[in-house]
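#lab-general

N.A. 3:47 PM
ok so I finally got the sequence cleaned up, no stray characters, all 531 residues accounted for. can someone with queue access submit it? mine expired

B.Y. 3:52 PM
send it over

N.A. 3:53 PM
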Amino acid sequence: MGDLTSPADYKTAPPPPLAEPVRRPVDATLRLLGWGWVLVRHDALAPREITPLLPVWIRWLAHLLHAFAGREGRDGRPGQRLGKAFEHLGPVAIKLGQVLATRADIFGIEFARDLGRLKDALEPFPLDQARREVERSLGRPVEALFTDFGPPVAAASLAQAHPAWLADGRKVAVKVLRPGVERRVAQGLDSMRLAARLAVRFVPLARRLEPSAFVETIARALKLELDMRLEAAAASELKDIMDKDVGVGGHMTAPAVIWDGVGKRVLTLEWAPGMAMTDPAAAEQPGLDKNALADNVVRAFLTQALDHGTFHADLHEGNLFCHAPAELTAIDFGIVGRLGPAERRYLAEILWGFLSRDYDRISRVHFEAGYVPPEHSVEAFAQALRAVGEPVIGKAASQVSMGRLLGQLFEITDLFDMHLRPELILLQKTMVSVEGVARRLNPDHDLWAAAAPVVERWIRRELGPQAQVRDAIEDIRATLKALSRLAQNPPQPQTVIIREAHTPAWMVVAVTLATAAATAALVLSLWPAIL
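B.Y. 4:20 PM
back already:
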């Protein structure tokens, strides 16, 4: 195994993204109030089902909110009501709901299933409107590229997908942005920026979470997701990455991009094989190995993140297709996460530390990376990590309370003054989604056992003896190249010219006269005393 005793060569963490101003404060404030009212009307802010669990001093406020619930808040389960509220609030809220829908282990299977419709089962916009968007974006009639263009089969927060057929008979998926979605996203982000500033000012506990940096990171990802040309490039890049991994397991594939069908608001991909994992029948396909499929979800993400530093950052069920025996195909490449060498080593060593139960190493990695302020104790942080890790390692997922675990982790980060790292937001978000997908497939899935082969391979390759020899050879090559450049372009001798400075004659005369005048004045002032 690699040498984990030497200090990690971490670089300075990238600075957090600059916080953009709230462009329309009045509109953003009114919109936030409107969001709160929508949640109250849907009885989703403090659902009546959880009121008995609330502290006594806050129950009266919950009962007051229930009095304002409308017809939407009287029907359905909490997850259904919250899903409808998020759908009403727009794309930014829907993105939040998609993340919550992956955490059946925290919120319950029924709640997660109710929110699952936010992934790809929203209300679609009309077919004729989609055709106009395609023609406007590609600059030609739909019939010039497709022999048939069908009604939408999936509708998400930002876009919807249509089946179509090319002239050569291939079936493709055409993704079309919702009309006016850019404006709604901009408005939602403006309100989120205001909410982040209010949280920083009035909620001291939230400051460690760096809410403004969090919002700006999500905003950057959403802006990239609103240009289908950039998503096409990301799809092509991730397909190349996944194709390279065929020899090490082939955990996931991606459809090819049809570049003739790509525009700012339109993306065309080959049709993904299998069934969408949001379909309840997908997990019941004959010959499907659900545990192997759960392993592949975890390993595909870790292989992309560790081996390549580029990963699909939106891996929920709505973006995954599967078929027997355990084949996975990813779609929707609007959000791509990227990790530098330092962050990749951080991730690998943290995971390997938990797998090998080396809490002291995990602690030192956090301090070396600057994630824990240096005034704290390495040993004390290792002790806190042991308290979190030992009850979890080796346990089946069904025996682990993720809500309790997350609560413990939050308490530890508070105790050691740890702040949210903006450069790791997408990584953490995707890990949550991936774990949620795996546990939906198999409630007893062992995340650590699934991760072990990928992490161990990375450690051996990057930190093992062969890697050390490789690094030494690279250092020698770099030194030899520097010496070669020095020999080819030796430093030129520099001629130093020393010039004798001459004081101008007028300055000598002026100084002499001034000295004589000062001396005369001094003598005259002392003359009475001399006499």
